[in-house]
Structure formats: C-alpha cells, structure tokens
C-alpha cells in the first residue's frame, strides 16, 4: 500500500515493516524494532493514551518506508529521508492525525529541548547528536516561540523523552503483539 492509501490493513503493514526492516540500526546500538518497542513500552508505562503509545511505537517508521533508505544509514550528517515528515504522512492515513502530529513533531521537539536546555544535549546518544546537526541544529528564538505555542508540543516532548531513553541494548520489552490492539483501536476510530 502506498503512502497515500487508506488504512485497509494498517496494522498488518506495521507488522510487515518491522519484520522486514526492523533489524536496521540507523547508527544506534539498538535496531529499529527494539527502539520502537522500548519507546512504546515507556509510553505505556507512563500512562500515555493510545495515540501517544502508537506515536511512540511508530515515530521512526519513516526510516522504514522512505525509499531513499536502503539499509543502515552511513552518513548521519545528511538528513536525507526526512523521516518525521515521511512517517507522519504514512501514519496519518492509517492511524489518524493525533498520532501523525506527534510523529511529525518529534524531531522539532529534540531541537527545542536542546535549545532551551543545553544540558539535554549531554543526554543524547552520539547518533542523536549527529542527526541534530543534520536536522537543523538549535532553534531560533522565533522557532522556539512557535514550537512552545504548538498544540501538539506536549505529546511530542513526552515522545522525545522516551525516544532517547529507548536505546538500551538488551532491555526486555513487550512484544509487538502487545501493541497491536492499540493500533487496531486507532484504525477502528477512523472508519
């Protein structure tokens, strides 16, 4: 199913993507599947609502659906796949605008946190530091003000915290099947 398709078997598409390409690392010490499951698990443990748990699970799905990414990224100085935009479009058609908004804003949330809290940069993985530069670096004062007023900022900032915490090799997580009911509920709300 293409990026603009309706959500006929959206949950199956997620499973297929994570099975086929979830083993890619994209510069981190954990693969995309482990990162997604850790992030979603942290969101669930924090009591996040379905749309935020789904966004945590799917926030990097753009890496897996982007045609420009054929495997592990070797040049992190170039944000050539704009994974947050690709992922938000893909997720929005399948799971709704609330999920898509958090996915779309998770990179801006990283840039925002690094701008307003320089100590936050020290908590980033080396790959997150490299991609921060490629993604535009720190925000201008105008961009900070605009992000601070965005209605999706709270979900995106929560997601950003889990995103960085979800990079622990060997961390025990729930399996993908544990999150499929959440995705199924979101698809059902769209029909």
Shape: globular
Distance between the termini: 17 Å
CATH superfamily: Hypothetical protein af1432
Which residue ranges are poorly predicted, with pLDDT under 50 across at least 5 consecutive positions?
Answer: 1-7, 68-74
Rg, Å, rounded: 15 Å
| Major sheet attributes | none
What does this structure look like?
The protein has about 190 residues and is an all-alpha fold. The protein has a single domain (about 10-190), classed as Orthogonal Bundle (Hypothetical protein af1432). It contains ten helices and no strands. Helix 2 packs across helix 9, helix 3 crosses helix 6 and helix 6 packs across helix 9 (about 155-165). The protein is globular, with a radius of gyration of 15 Å.
Keywords:
Hypothetical protein af1432; mainly alpha
């Amino acid at each position: 199913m293409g990026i603009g398709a309706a959500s006929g078997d959206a949950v199956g598409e997620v499973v297929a993507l994570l099975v086929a390409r979830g083993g890619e690392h994209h510069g981190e010490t954990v693969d995309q599947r482990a990162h997604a499951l850790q992030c979603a698990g942290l969101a669930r443990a924090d009591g996040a609502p379905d749309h935020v748990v789904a966004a945590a699970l799917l926030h990097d799905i753009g890496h897996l659906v982007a045609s420009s990414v054929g495997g592990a990224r070797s040049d992190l100085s170039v944000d050539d796949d704009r994974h947050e935009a690709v992922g938000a479009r893909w997720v929005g058609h399948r799971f709704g605008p609330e999920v898509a908004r958090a996915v779309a804003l998770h990179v801006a949330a990283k840039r925002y946190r690094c701008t307003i809290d320089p100590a936050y940069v020290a908590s980033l993985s080396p790959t997150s530091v490299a991609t921060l530069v490629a993604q535009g670096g720190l925000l201008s004062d105008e961009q900070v003000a605009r992000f601070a007023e965005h209605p999706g900022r709270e979900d995106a900032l929560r997601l950003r915290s889990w995103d960085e915490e979800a990079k622990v090799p060997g961390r025990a997580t729930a399996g993908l099947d544990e999150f499929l009911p959440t995705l199924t509920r979101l698809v059902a709300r769209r029909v």
